[in-house]
What does this fold into?
Amino acid sequence: MASVNLRNGESQDSLLKRFRKKVVKSGVLSTVRRKRWFVSKSEQRRMERKKAIRRIKRRAFTKEGE
It folds into this structure.
């Protein structure tokens, strides 16, 4: 759990900003979004394979334009 303590003379805005940074850095939100629905192992592997193929094609396309 991310927590922050109010520093002397610190505004609420900067406190909130530090808290948000800490939450993003800890990866809590990305984990929650990822685990929102159940995805089977085979489905995960299939999605990762498709993602890798897209990444490879994108790299090949950018090198082609150089």
User: Anything to note?
Assistant: Residues 12-64 form one domain.
